[in-house]
């Protein structure tokens, strides 16, 4: 919500056009999109299979705000970031997009180790699994986050709608040059 509010304020100040947005705001959107994509993937590939035996699929997907948190917001954020918004994503930006996941994993794992919180996900229950399994989960989730950041970058690069717009703009410019 905070990211969306900041984004909207900057859009209104700059005019709605996304090509004029500051780089730091693009990074925040990239981080948010990557975190939401990770949420979607973890829910679909980890939490639903783990929760199926306990009948938790409805709780994870459609009850309360979960439909938005786990399905709609990740999809809308991905589509918006990759199709609508302008700006280049560099290889360095991939690490920036992965940073919140690393920070979240370190903090929540530490809080589980010192018993301030329990979970909230099965893979964070450090006392219910061997140490090496907690390390594997940590590495796996960070790698998935990094992979998703790569995928998001690639989709942004090959986006048909942006490329079509740029090609159309180039054709107009060439026609204007030819008539002069």
UniProtKB/TrEMBL annotation:
Name this polypeptide is given: FAR-17a/AIG1-like protein
Lineage: Eukaryota, Fungi, Fungi incertae sedis, Chytridiomycota, Chytridiomycota incertae sedis
Key words, A-Z: Membrane, Transmembrane, Transmembrane helix
Taxonomic superkingdom: Eukaryota
Transmembrane portions of the chain: 27-47, 67-84, 96-114, 134-156
């Amino acid at each position: 919500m905070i990211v969306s509010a900041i984004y909207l304020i900057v859009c209104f100040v700059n005019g709605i056009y996304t090509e004029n947005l500051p780089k730091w705001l693009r990074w925040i959107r990239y981080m948010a999109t990557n975190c939401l994509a990770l949420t979607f993937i973890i829910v679909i590939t980890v939490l639903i299979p783990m929760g199926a035996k306990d009948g938790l699929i409805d709780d994870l997907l459609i009850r309360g705000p979960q439909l938005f948190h786990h399905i709609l917001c990740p999809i809308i954020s991905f589509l918006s970031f990759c199709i609508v918004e302008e700006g280049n994503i560099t290889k360095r930006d991939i690490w920036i997009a992965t940073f919140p996941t690393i920070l979240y994993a370190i903090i929540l794992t530490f809080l589980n180790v010192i018993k301030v919180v329990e979970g909230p996900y099965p893979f964070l229950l450090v006392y219910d699994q061997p140490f090496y399994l907690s390390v594997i989960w940590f590495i796996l989730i960070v790698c998935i986050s990094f992979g998703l950041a790569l995928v998001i970058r690639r989709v942004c690069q090959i986006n048909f709608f942006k490329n079509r717009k740029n090609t159309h703009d180039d054709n107009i410019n060439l026609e204007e040059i030819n008539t002069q």
